[in-house]
Amino acid sequence: MNYQIKRNTEETQLNISLANN
How many angstroms separate the CA atoms of 6 and 21, rounded? Predict the structure, then answer.
């Protein structure tokens, strides 16, 4: 469960980074 949350958080951060460029 914690791993899934961590992975989702990392993917969200990546998506935000891509959207800002």
Answer: 23
Query: What would the pLDDT profile of 1-21 be if each residue is shown by its tens digit?
Result: 789 999 999 999 999 999 998
Please report which helix (H) or strand (E) contains residue 7, including its range: helix 2-19
Q: Is the pTM of this model over 0.85?
A: no
SS3 category, 20: coil
Q: How far apart are CA 11 and CA 18, in angstroms?
A: 11
